[in-house]
What we know:
Helix content: 10-25%
Number of strands: 11
Radius of gyration: 18 Å
Mean pLDDT: 87
Largest sheet: 9 strands, mixed
Shape: globular
Strand content: 25-35%
Number of helices: 4
Order of helices and strands: HHEEEEEEHEEEEHE
Amino acid sequence: MRHRAFLAAFAAVVIIALSSPAFAMAAGGSAARDISFAAEHDPGTIVIHTGERKLYLLTGGGRALVYDIAVGKPSEQWFGKSWVSKKREHPTWTPTPSMRQKNPRLPQSIGPGPKNPLGERAINLGWGAYRIHGTNSPNSIGRAASSGCFRMRNADVKDLFERVHVGAQVMVLR
């Protein structure tokens, strides 16, 4: 009888562990979680809460997928409304003029690969230089670390990339 109880407890622990975001990330999958989310926006809208360091993709019916993100440093943060203007797989990173002014030694660009600060996908916002993108620095997730962009783990940005469409609304809130 003890053997069966042990096996049942072990199976429960394994099921919980396999369904956790940490396991999904270790296995190379997305850590997105489906949650209740009351919002007055259409499904497909991205809502970013910089203070929470979370990105929500509204899925309808009072639900959303939530992802952990890195946000801009306090001096680089912005808030308001934008839209997805372009989606790029394996993007090339080119420093903005303000980045180059702060650090003239930056390279002209970095192509796809492990050294690329944009990671594996980039989702451009509006007409500006801001993006939702992957990262080559996953330890920055959960921090205020960027120059105004929103960083995601590469598995998460690949998941979001497949779900969001060009033209989707983006709301950036404190």
